[in-house]
Design brief:
2 copies of one chain form a homodimer.
Chain A: E1 3-8, H1 11-23, E2 29-33, E3 39-41, E4 44-46, H2 48-57, H3 75-82, H4 93-107, H5 112-122, E5 128-131, E6 138-143, E7 146-149, H6 150-156, E8 163-169, H7 178-184, E9 189-194, H8 199-207, H9 210-218, E10 223-226, E11 229-230, E12 233-234, H10 239-245, H11 252-259, E13 265-269, H12 276-281, E14 285-289, H13 296-312
Parallel strand pairs in A: 1-2, 1-9, 2-5, 9-10, 10-13, 13-14
Antiparallel strand pairs in A: 3-4, 6-7, 6-8, 11-12
Helix pairs in contact in A: 1-2, 1-13, 4-5
Chain lengths: ~325, ~325
């Protein structure tokens, strides 16, 4: 058994990450996480995708909301509203502690990579999870309401604005963390899995960092992706809506085409089995599986499918 | 009925402040509050005495602890501990919102005076309460453990170190807020009440600001104080302990002597009625009352005594 890298963004990606963590040891699995959604709020450094993965892997996540912690309390934000503070971004009492701690360590000069490590260790996670970069990269949504920062588009505006273009500010000068490069050049690397996260909002910010994209292109291990589009719809979030707005055909083959020659393999949902031939024509190996992950078994089964597909590639 | 100013620090002072607010309208009563205890913690501007008065006047205070809010929850600080944060200064979930809001407004360039006003209004307080200054003043405790900031001495070290000297850093260049000067030069001013707060830790930082001390000396209205020492002991906090360490006689007359010629009147507790003659010898009017305020009636009764004594002066 070799080493694997999973590339992930928000909730959908974290589900497969959890499945992979059920069958792979921390010595054999690491995560590269989107930080294009990171933003400063109430003076705090909030890193939504790093935290979604942390809460998911530590079984602290809220299964109802898809974000934040289970059994969370909201006394801070309710009180903040009473004192005139803005509340469109709901920060739970327990969750808030993570942002305060992260901010203090960053202000003390720590790398985000090292901050993430101590936060993950605090909740018992031994897997390595690296922010895509320690540099600031900001996903900006160019839309019919002008240029919106990610959280303003996603949370405050509820993804309603019509997307024209996505910009990953800072990506051109950002570099991946050295731990990523070490892992990707490890002779034992057996494969890279792009999790079923939103390609435009969660994965493209990562791929916009040129040394990450180059390293993925040049690595000897195969790269596969899991389609976040099932039957022409996104399981969660605005992926399908954005595809329509960007005039991308709204089906799983468009996701495979989007990642292009980065991919050696692609996992389609069972309902999209009929699209397998079209993807194979592009020279990409295909597996068909149940990709909608509701139970832990669903997550583990999809993780097994991913490892099997990587063996075929 | 004229206008009154109450000078106050922490819990004891806030009790009399509440009594005064029961019998005087916001047009006739204002508060000058110690900010020597203010400090930056977790990147937040914490102003303990301003908040103690706010929670007391709005009936949100925790009667058991004497600080913070009633019915508070502690999920933030517990989570913060889990993530490796320091927890010697316990911040409640609801209370935390005040510090975040205050910090944001200060960083936006607001005066602490104006921040305090909007915070107080948010919980329905119409009384004016001014920080002693908008400038940073820090009470530093020179003690057998070296120089400690106020909160390190008071909270982290639990007042155990032996005090040698108190320093009010920044007081020499600080100025009172203009609202204070307007109030104190108002022809309707009928009196100033120094609440039964710790003279060394809560009142002296205020008096260390020269234009406050000068304005109190020069104002035509009488100035009185309520003894925080009852039967040689402090009702709460380290006042008596500090008096012993500073070689000040540990009784109420020493408090009157400490304020010296600033005072026109002094309120002694019933148990100290025997000291009245000694205080009067110094040319200070004396009232004897129940100064230990347990019930709201106790607070109101002491407030009435204060106003009556001011009429006599």
């Amino acid at each position: 058994m070799g080493k694997y890298l999973a590339i992930t963004g928000g909730v959908g990606g974290a589900k497969l990450a959890l499945g992979l963590a059920q069958i792979l040891d921390p010595t054999d699995l690491a995560f590269l996480v989107n930080t294009g959604d990171d933003f400063k709020h109430l003076g705090l450094h909030v890193a939504p995708d790093i935290d979604t993965l942390m809460y998911t892997l530590s079984h602290l996540s809220n299964p109802d909301t898809g974000w934040g912690r289970a059994g969370e309390s909201w006394n801070f934000i309710d009180s903040f509203a009473q004192f005139g503070g803005e509340t469109w971004f709901r920060l739970g009492d327990r969750d808030l502690a993570v942002h305060v701690r992260r901010t203090m360590l960053l202000e003390a000069g720590w790398r985000l990579t090292d901050v993430t490590k101590v936060l993950y260790q605090a909740v018992g996670i031994d897997y390595q999870a690296w922010p895509m970069t320690d540099a600031p990269v900001h996903t900006v949504i160019d839309c019919d309401k002008g240029s919106l920062s990610f959280q303003h588009y996603f949370v405050r505006e509820g993804c309603r604005p019509i997307v024209r273009r996505l910009v990953y500010e800072g990506a051109e000068s950002a570099q991946a963390v050295c731990e990523f490069h070490s892992w990707l050049t490890d002779p034992g690397l057996a494969g890279v899995i792009i999790c079923p996260s939103n390609p435009f909002l969660s994965i493209d910010p990562i791929l916009a960092i040129s040394d990450i994209k180059d390293a993925l292109h040049n690595c000897r291990a195969p790269v596969i992706a899991v389609s976040p589009i099932v039957g022409g719809e996104a399981i969660k979030g605005p992926t399908a809506k954005i595809m329509a707005e960007l005039n991308v055909p709204r089906d799983a083959t468009a996701i495979a085409a989007h990642y292009g020659d980065l991919l050696d393999g692609f996992i389609l949902d069972e309902v999209d089995a009929g699209l397998a031939g079209a993807v194979r024509l592009a020279g990409i190996q295909v597996a068909v599986a149940k990709t909608v992950m509701q139970t832990l078994d669903d997550k583990v089964n999809l993780a097994h499918t991913a490892l099997e597909l990587l063996e075929l590639c």
